[in-house]
């Protein structure tokens, strides 16, 4: 096995410094890319959650419409039964207390229908706000992804510059000492 001289050791040290620089640069770049992928994934999840929330909001509106219509039909059914009962008892259906009873039934039924509509709209609004929050989170995650990518590239560049400086310092010392 051949013995290494001082010159060979100097070149080996320079090569090792250069390899360490390359490894450091690659590591910084890879870390930035990994962080970018993770942030992009989080953004995609947030956007999917936004779509789901929008779907829930729409479903609440549709559910509210169905329940509101069902309440109005139920109220009309009750009014019809009141009219039938009043008519069967021999009272005048379109005068006095029977008219007030039918009007009260209609008002209370409409109040219930409006309450159903209001409740469904509030629930839909809650899902809409939740969707907007998810959208904002997706935007933040996308900015994080871009920043991570830039940070990785800058870290790699910084490692290369720092490493090149270190290698050149070593080379200059070896050169000045007459080793290479």
Question: What features would you describe in this structure?
Answer:
The protein has one domain (6-177). The mean pLDDT is 94. By secondary structure, it is mainly alpha-helical. It is built from two helices and no strands. Helices cover 92% and strands 0% of the residues. Helix 1 runs antiparallel to helix 2.
* Class of secondary structure makeup: mainly alpha
Q: Biggest sheet, in brief?
A: none
**Rg for CA atoms:** 38 Å
Strand content: under 5%
Number of domains: 1
Count of alpha/pi helices: 2
Q: What is the arithmetic mean of pLDDT?
A: 94
Summarize the amount of helix as a percent range. over 70%
What is the multimeric organization of the chains shown?
single chain
Q: Quick one: how many beta strands? A: 0
User: What is the helix/strand order?
Assistant: HH
Which residue ranges are poorly predicted, with pLDDT under 50 across at least 5 consecutive positions? Answer: none
Quick summary:
This protein is mostly helical. 92% of the residues lie in helices and 0% in strands. α1 packs antiparallel against α2 (96-177).
